[in-house]
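note to self: dont lose this again. the chain is below, predicted strucutre after it. 121 aa total, dont forget to put it in the shared folder this time
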Amino acid sequence: MTLLVVLTVVAIALFIAELAIYLFVVGSGLTRVAIGLEGCAHIVWDIKRNAESIESGVEHINHTGRVIAGAMPLLYGMAEGIVVGATYEPASEVEPVPSTPAMKPRRTRLHEAVGYRPEGM
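---
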């Protein structure tokens, strides 16, 4: 055998080994993805099972919402009628008058107790 044939066989063997390693890495990655997707599928089926019991309630809520939406123009008209008589008018801009005391200065009686009578009392 010549050197060229030996090197070709070695190159093919290395290529097959690299391909096997690559396929192993990709396969293990795909296995991890499949495990994650399986867990997600279980969660989705649980959500679907839980949502089935809510479906009738949602239909009732939608019916109630349609009834309320149909009554909105009537309610709006009634509210407009109420507001017409209760329109807010802001207070006029009048300067406040400073407050004055409610009584005159108090007179002390201590002076009278000692017999002193100041002028003007």
